[in-house]
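Practice problem: predict the structure.
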Amino acid sequence: MSIDRLLRPNLIESHTQEWKDGTVPGWIPGILTGIENDDIDPEGLGRIKVKCDLISATDNLPNGWDGWVWVLEDFVNNSGVGGSHRLLQAGTQIALLPMLGNPQQLLMLGCLHSRIDRPNPMFNRAKGVHGTHTPGEVMSIKDDVNAERTDGYPNGVIQQVSRAGDVINQTQGGARSHLQADGTVNIENPLASTVLSAEGDITQRSAGDAVSILGSDGAAVIRSEAFGSELNLAAIESVLSAPMPAIGTLINQAKQITGKLGEGMNLISELNQRFELGLDNQLSQVSNTLQRLEKGVGTAAAQGADVLDKLQEFSVDDFGKLLSSQVEQALDPAIASLARDLPSLLENFDFPRINEFLKTEGLNILPDELEATLRGLSHQPTLQAEMILSEVLPNGYESFANLSALELHGTISQVQELIDSLVLSQAVVERDATLAVSPKERAITPDLDLQAGIEKVWKLLPEGIQAHLEKPKFTELVRGVVTGESEIGDLFTNVLGQRAKGAIANASQALGRALPTLREIPQLRASLAENPPSLPALEQVMSQFSEQLTPALDEALGALNQSFHSIPSTLPTPRVVANAVMSELRSASGVSQVFASDAGAGLSTPWGSFGIGSGGFSFKGKKGKNGKQDPLIFPVTGAHNARLKIDENQGILIEGTTPEGQVLSKILVDGANITITAGEQATIEINPTGVFINGALWTGAIAFQPLND
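Answer:
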């Protein structure tokens, strides 16, 4: 090809004087035709071959003596290998500059976008967003205004530098490191994590919810959240908590599912937003999201289904007993009055009036500094009530939280009052039947039809409770309380147990409906990898997938949260506590303990206590309803029956009994007095004034007769 005349004669540009003279006044538009992997530069200098449609539509330009065109690079390494090397692709439109106007000495200046080869829509010079996006889907997005950078790769790796100075790295499998500007380090994958805080704390969590916390102050905690056991090493004391009972362990495992389901919904939402924004690199993001759904949500949901199945094996009574302490608290007259009257007290907020009410009921009054906070929450009475209960209740709001969530906190006392009326009415009916009371006399006594009363009790229950109860069974339970066959606590244990068991069954069914869609993820990922669809087709596939999975996850999440309303957030377990002067072994409820120190040791239970120290032995019985200590009893049973009673009101008492416990004889030692009793009439009393036999002072001598052989 001759370039004596640069332009083809049929082009209007060929008629300018410069072109006729064989010189080029400016840059030349060209098309890259040869690069290293196609038409290789024999000297390995990264040169290219080009053509120019203004000169020839088919032939490469005979640049220089060998036809190769130099490429302008950012920099080179002096006297060595390296420097920058542009990514170029055959067919790219480029700008060529002739040296001193010589068309046979061309230099490639750069590449040109066109209406076909468009820049990534994320790039926006007006907003300072620029970068690169290669044909191989390697992206680098720089935001000069916000001083941010994001690099993405088709294998799912993402690297980010944020405006705040954070550095984030993430892989397709969900491995992620987050280095924060304040020095905090977070390393995690879908199943486990490690966090190093700026203050020097280290927190680690495993896939099985084993947690270790190493504090900057030297304290350490090792905890199994799945099983509820914990070792807490602190400056003041160390505490070892035993694992929760089996039902508590399964409940904790079930609670972990909610976090995974919520994470799954967030992942799908983020992916849908990417499609709405029309962002590129969608296939890589879809693959990354599906993998995280499969490993994190899919695995957790399958395990969760097994956990819920195991929970359903527990009885109604097992579940009901979990809230027995909250029911007992709600039945306390003072707490019942507070739960019943608190909504009306909060309608027209009056802090002194609330404290006066608490004082009248014998409850702790609220501190003055709480008034401003409560007044600020006047538009949120629920939060006001929670804060007041947190201050007033002995064990805080958590000891009442489940009854509140179930809308039973004010209902329990109303049910008790109604049942008490039914008990009284039933007693009146039985009395009238026995004494043949006249209609006139009966008119002045309270009377309530039993069946109508039970119907009123039923209507007091929230609909969310009724939905899980069998009304005939409930009627039978209330009737048993009224007739004295069972206690009101037994009624609520059954009601709450049925509610919990029914809610868990609902959650299991809802999670089961989500599992089939989650199990389709591996096949969907493989299909997208083997046959990458177009962007519109990919969006349609993911839209259908989202429409199936999102409502299923939402339903399962809601059902799980509903089931947890019937389950306390924590279950008490036995503990070992040790400090600088004492160690204790405590029961789950804390009412029984064994303790030891340099000053002594002992044990304490609701039925009595024993201690030994420098002052000798000490014994105490349980405290009775009248506030006095009941006797501490040591029974001896078998062929010979007796018991030793230590009574702070009487002294030490030795009793001979029948196997059934009937007292036949006894010796009482109380200070300077000794009393011996046999049967119903024989009594000897010895005190400083003398010896009394059957009440009469004995003045004679005691004669001992030798035993006969």
